[in-house]
């Protein structure tokens, strides 16, 4: 915890030093001891009876694979940011890893910063490579589920991207995010405002409990590297026992 607190004190310097993100050694090392916004949706939507083992393993010991979809997303990100900058007629500034000043075990790496109070998050999907953004959203279930069924200009609050963005906004203390779905043929954008109540009631308590009860024990004294089962908190074990078997 002392290391995390020191990181929080130097958050501006750490953010500056990690602007290359996945190409930065510091970015990679900091993320090994933190819970970051790309995983917030998975954690916050876990049921009381859901084992934490798979999630802890995927966060702390991710497989060293580089899929075609992952490579496509990285390769297209700069092009997508340039296009978004043209559409908005505003500069998008690079950024690194932001560490929450109050809760230094939480972090976020937005795709860029916009003006003084905004940020951007862009998704480039390989499956939408030959479609327009609107066409992809209407025909591809994975993209369609991102948006509200009744209003395609609003993000679905149950989707992991909404949790990711709310985490980014609260950790960076910025007011809004321009979320974009990019394809080589077009781009769809929506504005997402910071929702303090959503963060306070539906995110922060679950993130904090997961970090201290599930992640931190494995960080401090890893059982996985000793080929032993990852620890499960008592309340999850009890919840699974009390769950009626079908």
UniProtKB/TrEMBL annotation:
InterPro entries: NF-kappa-B_Signaling_Reg, PDDEXK-like_dom_sf, Restrct_endonuc-II-like, YqaJ_viral_recombinase. One of its GO terms (biological process) is DNA repair. It holds the Pfam family YqaJ. Residues 27-174 form the YqaJ viral recombinase domain. SUPFAM superfamilies: Restriction endonuclease-like. Gene3D superfamilies: 3.90.320.10. This is YqaJ viral recombinase domain-containing protein.
